Amino acid sequence: MPTIDYDLLTRLETIIKGLKNKKIFIAIAESCTGGYVSNWITNISGASKVFERGVITYSNQSKIDLLKVSASDINDYGAVSQKIAEQMALNIRLYSNVDVGIGITGIAGPLGGTLEKPEGLVYLGFSTKKATCVQRYIFKTDRIRFKHQVLLKVLDFLESLI
Amino acid sequence: MPTIDYDLLTRLETIIKGLKNKKIFIAIAESCTGGYVSNWITNISGASKVFERGVITYSNQSKIDLLKVSASDINDYGAVSQKIAEQMALNIRLYSNVDVGIGITGIAGPLGGTLEKPEGLVYLGFSTKKATCVQRYIFKTDRIRFKHQVLLKVLDFLESLI
Questions:
Q1: pTM of the model
Q2: What confidence tier does B151 reach under pLDDT thresholds 50, 70, 90?
Q3: What CATH number is given to the structural domain containing B58?
Q4: Domain residues for B23?
Q5: Number of domains in chain B
Q6: Which chain A residues have a beta carbon less than 8 Å from that of B36?
Q7: A75 and chain B: CB distance < 8 Å anywhere?
Q8: What was the ipTM of the complex prediction?
């Protein structure tokens, strides 16, 4: 049985309530986090009033199919890049017809990194009607804690909206 | 920081390795589990050799947009029904061009149930090239443990393939 982090649940409850009160709908496109962020958000009863959909675009083809990410940009910049995070966030927002789109692409590790793009590198795209911006982090830890660090950055962003 | 269930990770490692050896690719369409199943699968290093994509079709519109689930069937049978689980599993398999599609639709609770469709009800669709079938369960528990019970049924199914 899973262990439940009640402090985090309480933080998420406040965020969902705040977004709901402001009638803000969100959609999330995850790659390296594999559903971890969407899963936490949907742990809250009433999340359906805020969370419209998520996609877990693990393969390059799924990023092209579901998010219309540019295949030539994947080729030129790599799937783990500022360009792709930006397109993931913008396009999940537009195609889901929501207020806020979040795009996450990175290298969870423990393999797959390079000198230029090490394990733990992640780009987080945040798109609203006002702007689309990308944050870059390196979280050097194991695969599950990496996902958790990304979640905390997403929650910081969502709290900034309410 | 998240608590890590190492026994479950070991079970998942064996499943991922088995599917990889058989060159079986999977895709998952989740509704009520909100990414929980995909998240566990992607906790394993090398999951990208098996897990092609996931979608978290929380709203009815997202089921129609991403999975081409029949809007009239949603209207006639409800989003939580055998019909919709079947379509979710079949269509995520076909549209993702993979060997195995999994579709999950249910009522995680604690609200949203009816006499006919109580909280905890879930339909699990499993689609392979041979057949598409649906299992029905009622897991009367809290929201997070409900997701976990569903995961265990999905793992039973995946183990049956290897």
A1: 0.97
A2: very high
A3: 3.90.950.20
A4: 6-160
A5: 1
A6: 35, 39, 42
A7: no
A8: 0.96
